[in-house]
Specification:
This protein is mostly helical. The protein has 19 helices and eight strands. Strands 2-4-5-7-6 form a five-stranded mixed beta sheet. It has a three-stranded antiparallel beta sheet with strand order 1-3-8. Its EC number is 2.7.13.3.
């Protein structure tokens, strides 16, 4: 399918969708990057939250380590409240840290997860250390090593941070918090060894070395913190970790180191050492908490900032997309609505307006006057190309209607010619009949009289053809009578007007009459049906006519032959044309009689329908229903049962010079050829007719119902 075959709606959508898709792709990349950055900051904040739990656990273990070391050095006195309290605090902090397993899962970092599980496992092993420390033979250095190992893993966990973090402010703040945690651990280790030395008076060489190394590391870390790029961390440490308790703590440290270097007893008050160390650690913990809170807030601010930018980007993208769609919808509407209106108008013109206008023009006696309001312009008033197409379509519509007007005028002219020729022919036929009438009146020879009657019959056929021409031209016949015609005379006149009249047999006629205004047309209608029945049946067969009155005074006339029948499809088409006759066209040439019957039936609201019995009974049955408004029922027949013949059936009349041949052919009613006899009638009574209908229910039904049976194959 080429691009030129695409619907306009698809083309418009394509024009907008392609650049919009490109813009959305770029926006999607930007949104994805922003979402990834937000994820980094979310993980950083979660890591800091885990660091805070680790710092609380480390502080509690540092306090417990100091208390445990002093308790063992003092000979494990019973009911040491300080140790009992520190152990409870450590267990609470450890439990709080273990509850962060869900947070560790959300962080999803492998190293962080591994360190978390190490801390949990080592924290469980501290319970064994606590129980074993009560044994007098337990090595006093083991608790220090065990607690220090757990605290070391906690410090390593605090150093973990998302490598995807690129913000310098966040990295430096986190680094400051980690430095402070290490400073606090070094100070806590010094305090532990110092307390043990104060209780025992001396330290082992390895313990002295460990205390000295902790002091060196502490100095280096404090120096590194002083050069930190984050002034707030340095300022917080310098302004918080100060005062007399801190100075006293470091003085005790220096005094102990001086005495140990001189190989002298340390000689410090254990309680004084414990208090000063605890106060120093408390101040450092305050700074650590402050720095972690600051780092968490900074990471949260970055996260919120990225999310705000992401939301603004999404809003801008969605707003831009909606704006583009609104503009596209407006442009598409401005193009498609006129096109759809033009298309709808074109279809309406083709299917409704133009046929209706042509029908009005064809029926209007002055087609040129009907042209003035036949064309309604398309309701597209724009000045663009679509409006130009609409005006062009109006022009085409007008040309089509003008062509219809020309055709109507031509048809009227041809119709006038047909009417003029038909009336001329009728006048000549009437003159010819007058001549034949005079010859018949003066002729005594039977053979010559038979020839004159045959010539008279042929002239009658010619006059019926002239009447057909008038009917086809839409002109009513001038031959109308004000008197009522008995039904027998109407049927007899119809029989006398066909070529094969001897083959027609009438079985029943009701005691009723037809109003003069419709009598001639009914004669014409029945004659066409009889001519059709005799023409399409074998010459040796008989065409049967029955007539009866229904309960509502409707006259039912039934004509049945024994011909070749009609197929079901063609029968349905013929009945449709009889019900709703169409205009004359080329297809009417072989069915002219059918069209004449349909026009005459519509003129007087007479119902005509054909039926075929198919294999059950060959031939076609025609049913004519004349409405009660055209029927006059005689007073003496009112009380008789309907659908029966008269008591005295019609009999063949003797041949006379002025009317009836010896074969009983009825002459035309209303002129010199009137007669009341019907050819081929048999002397039958009402009971015989009724019995015949009872033995042939199919025909009785056709007089009262619209049943169609069988099929055949013949033109109408």
């Amino acid at each position: 399918m080429s691009l030129s075959d695409w619907p306009l709606r698809v083309r418009l959508i394509t024009i907008v969708v392609l650049p919009t898709a490109a813009a959305l792709s770029l926006a999607g990349v930007s949104i994805q990057a922003s979402e990834a950055t937000a994820g980094v900051y979310r993980h950083a904040r979660q890591q800091i939250q885990l660091d805070a739990a680790a710092a609380r656990m480390a502080g509690a273990l540092q306090t417990e380590r100091d208390a445990m070391t002093g308790w063992i050095a003092a000979g494990r006195p019973a009911n040491d409240d300080e140790l009992i309290g520190s152990v409870a605090t450590s267990r609470g902090a450890t439990s709080a840290f273990q509850n962060q397993e869900g947070l560790v899962g959300e962080i999803g970092d492998v190293k962080t997860t591994s360190l978390y599980h190490q801390i949990v496992n080592r924290a469980r092993s501290l319970d064994e250390v606590r129980h074993a420390a009560a044994d007098a033979g337990f090595d006093p250095s083991v608790p220090i090593s065990a607690y220090t190992a757990v605290i070391g893993v906690l410090l390593e966990l605090e150093q973990q941070f998302d490598t995807a973090v690129t913000d310098e402010g966040l990295l430096s703040r986190h680094a400051g918090a980690v430095l402070l945690a290490k400073i606090k651990e070094c100070s806590a280790q010094q305090g532990t060894y110092l307390r043990k030395g104060a209780v025992t008076g001396r330290l082992r060489p390895d313990e002295q070395a460990a205390m000295t190394q902790a002091g060196v590391t502490l100095v280096n870390l404090v120096t590194e913190l002083g050069g930190s790029a984050v002034p707030s961390a340095r300022e917080a440490y310098e302004t918080t970790v100060t005062g007399d308790p801190v100075k006293h703590r470091y003085q005790l440290q220096e005094l102990a180191e001086a005495r140990m270097s001189g190989n002298l007893p340390i000689g410090l008050d254990p309680g004084d050492v414990a208090r000063s160390s605890a106060q120093t650690l408390s101040l450092m913990s305050q700074v650590e908490t402050r720095l972690l809170t600051e780092v968490s807030g900074y990471a949260g601010a970055l996260y919120d900032q990225v999310w705000r930018a992401l939301i603004l980007t999404c809003v801008a993208v969605i707003g831009g997309l909606l704006l583009v769609m609104a503009v596209m919808a407006g442009v598409a509407r401005s193009l498609l609505r006129p096109l759809l209106r033009l298309r709808g108008t074109a279809i309406d013109v083709a299917e409704n307006q133009l046929p209706s206008a042509i029908e009005r023009i064809m029926r209007d006696p002055e087609p040129e006057t009907a042209l003035e309001h036949a064309v309604e312009p398309v309701a597209v008033t724009s000045a663009d190309e679509i409006g130009s197409v609409a005006r062009a379509f109006d022009l085409v519509h007008e040309k089509a209607v003008r062509l219809a007007v020309e055709q109507a005028l031509l048809r009227e002219n041809v119709k006038g010619i047909f009417v003029d020729l038909a009336k001329r022919s009728q006048r000549l036929v009437d003159r010819q009949l007058g001549v034949i009438d005079r010859l018949e009146q003066d002729e005594d020879d039977a053979d010559r009289l038979a020839v004159l009657f045959e010539l008279d019959h042929l002239i009658t056929l010619v006059r019926r053809n002239g009447d057909n021409l008038l009917v086809l031209s839409g002109t009513h016949s001038d031959r109308k009578s004000g008197k009522e015609w008995p039904v027998g005379e109407v049927i007899g006149a119809a029989i006398s007007g066909i070529e094969q009249y001897p083959r027609v047999r009438v079985l029943s006629v009701p005691d009723a009459a037809v109003r003069g205004s419709a009598a001639h047309d009914l004669v014409h209608l029945i004659g066409e049906l009889l001519d059709n029945a005799t023409h399409f049946s074998e010459p040796a067969t008989t065409v049967v006519v029955r007539a009866a009155l229904r309960a509502d005074d409707t006259l039912a006339i039934q004509i049945s032959d024994q011909g070749i029948g009609i197929t079901g499809h063609e029968l349905a088409d013929i009945n449709a044309r009889l019900t709703a006759p169409t205009d004359i066209d080329g297809s009417m040439t072989r069915k002219m009689g059918l069209h004449v019957v349909a026009q005459l039936a519509r003129r007087h609201d007479i119902a005509v329908r054909l039926f075929s019995d198919g294999d059950e009974e060959p031939g076609v049955l025609a049913r004519v229903l004349v409405p009660p408004s055209l029927i006059v029922v005689r007073r003496e027949a009112k009380d008789r049962p309907r659908n029966t013949a008269r008591d005295q059936p019609l009999r063949p009349a003797p041949r006379t010079k002025t009317g009836i041949h010896d074969n009983g052919v009825a002459q035309r009613p209303g002129d010199r050829h009137s007669a009341t006899s019907i050819s081929g009638s048999l002397p039958i009574s009402d009971s015989m007719v009724a019995n015949r209908f009872r033995h042939r229910p199919s025909q009785t039904t056709l007089l009262s119902h619209d049943a169609v049976r069988g099929n055949g194959n013949r033109p109408a």
